[in-house]
Amino acid sequence: MVVLCSCPMAACFFCHKPLGLEGKVPFRELCPHCGMDVHVCLNCEFYDTGYANYCRESQAEPIRDREVSNRCEYFVLGSSDSTQDDAAARAKKQLDNLFKKK
After folding, report:
1. What are the DSSP E strand ranges found in 1-102?
2. Which residues share a beta bridge with 55?
3. Closest to 40 (Cα-Cα) out of 86, 83, 88, 97
4. Which of 5, 20, 74, 83 is exposed most, by the fewest CB atoms within 10 A?
5. According to the model, what pLDDT value does residue 4 have?
6. How far apart are CA 27 and CA 6, in angstroms?
7. Nearest C-alpha neighbor of 8 from the set 24, 17, 21, 25
């Protein structure tokens, strides 16, 4: 299995500093700035609170603690900003639809 970084500016979910990682991310990789685990749901491109189990990957097993290193085979390092932007855009669209004038 090869896990690739989908975003060259991937940042740590905890300290928000650039990780500087590319390619396969080991399960036990730590942030060079704050020492937090990198292979966690909150750093994954598929993490999304709008989906079941907070994951856009439907085949991923549920993870209890999303801030601790896990063994998810679907992990893809993503930018914490892109996940937040996607969620914000989706929420805005839902609000627009809710309050749309008829």
Report:
1. none
2. 47
3. 83
4. 20
5. 46
6. 17
7. 21
Closest by CA to 9, choosing from 23, 24, 27, 21, is: 21
What pLDDT score does 95 carry? 80
Residue keyed to tokens 């998810």: 72
Q: Record the pTM.
A: 0.69
- Contact between 35 and 60 under an 8 Å Cβ cutoff? The reply is no
| Phi (first) and psi of residue 55, to 5 degrees | -140, 130
By C-alpha distance, which of 32, 30, 26, 101 is closest to 71? Answer: 26
Per-residue model confidence as pLDDT tens for the chain (102 residues): 444 444 457 899 999 999 988 778 999 999 999 999 999 999 999 999 999 899 999 999 999 999 999 999 999 998 655 545 566 777 777 788 888 765
- As a whole number of angstroms, the distance between CA 18 and CA 30 comes to 12
